[in-house]
Write a structure and sequence with these properties.
The protein has three helices and eight strands; from the N terminus they run ββαβββββαβα. It is of the alpha+beta class. Strands 1, 2, 3, 4, 5, 6, 7 and 8 form an eight-stranded mixed β-sheet that branches. It starts with a strand and ends with a helix.
Amino acid sequence: MAGYYLKTHYKSVGPYPDKAVHFPEGCDQLAREFAACESFLFYETKKGDRPGLAGAGTIWGVGQPVGEVVSIAGQEVNGRIYTLAVPVRITMALRDRNRGIPAPRVQEILGRPLGFTGGLWKLEPKQFFLLLRELEERIAREELLGIKLTEWKRETAQGRFSS
């Protein structure tokens, strides 16, 4: 395996990416490079895969490819036909994608805007690990927030309803 990537995707009504990441037709080489990578970060664009659906515009998860490129029945999304898929395993993710690393911070680290062919950008190890560390911190904060919120609700309920 070689390299690290940032993989962008549109917001989807379903649980995308569930088990595979899709690539548009004509991006065979990019899909093969992605399938051979060591690890990748997921970036959900602000666009949806259908009109009226908006994404978070953040890096929200990290994963690894777990198989080779496979052909799939073509699906049109925003004017492009997606005919390739790479099986993946998501290793860490935010529950709330809106809490992810926002586009301006990602652009600051990458040194360029976030628009690239096939939704794939090769990252230098330094870039990948810097973004990964920030994502891990956001996941930890989300977990702490969830714990504190649960405890607060329990304490509030006990205080209100105790005799």
